[in-house]
Amino acid sequence: MDKPTHGDKPTKGEQTRTAILDEALKIASRLGLEGLTIGSLAEATGMSKSGLFAHFGSREDLQLAVLEHAAQRYGELVFVPVLRIQRGLPRLRALFARWLDWTLASGLPGGCIMISAANEYDDRPGPIRDAVIANQHRGNAISQKAVRLAIDEGHLKRGTDPEQIAFEMLGIVLASHNHRRLLGDKEARKRSLIAFDELIARHAAARKPLKAVSR
Length: 215
Hints:
This protein has helices at 12-31, 38-45, 49-55, 59-82, 89-105, 113-121, 127-152, 162-182, 188-203. With 215 residues, the protein is mostly helical. Helix 1 packs across helix 4, helix 4 packs across helix 5 (89-105) and helix 5 (89-105) packs antiparallel against helix 7. 69% of the residues lie in helices and 0% in strands. The longest helix is centred in the middle third of the chain and has 26 residues, at 127-152. The protein has a domain at 63-203: Tetracycline Repressor, domain 2.
């Protein structure tokens, strides 16, 4: 997720690469990473295959670049904004809400590519699976850190297991994604926020009353 080091304004080449990756991410969101090819991307962008090969040496390089591009966008839309929120439970709540909403905010037509990639590559060894796992670990570590801050701030009980909370948060997000996209459940977000409230209530420090997420 490195930024350009030569100044605030990206070069023309970087702008072109970003535009290509934006289009590739849309394709991968609809068809999966396995559905993303140099040919399909050339057709979508109007570029030649040789021009695309100048940016990405192989199909696998393209797929890996798309995963990293998705992770960067995810960070920009989810993680970075919540750093401005008060430490502790307010930040944890904001992180969860943004996590729920990021597929809509990102404009991806086929939903969360992180979820679809995990399904595609859960039993297919190789660099792409390794990248998917690395992204999952990064996200999990950030969720656990947010839980630890909530414990440190006295919002959650001492002895609360950050790994367990992060595990259950992911479970809620996966259920929401399934119910909203596959089953068309218009109440999926509301149900997810209720589930999160109940999860937090089980671990809340008694001395600090909690304010429910507005729905």
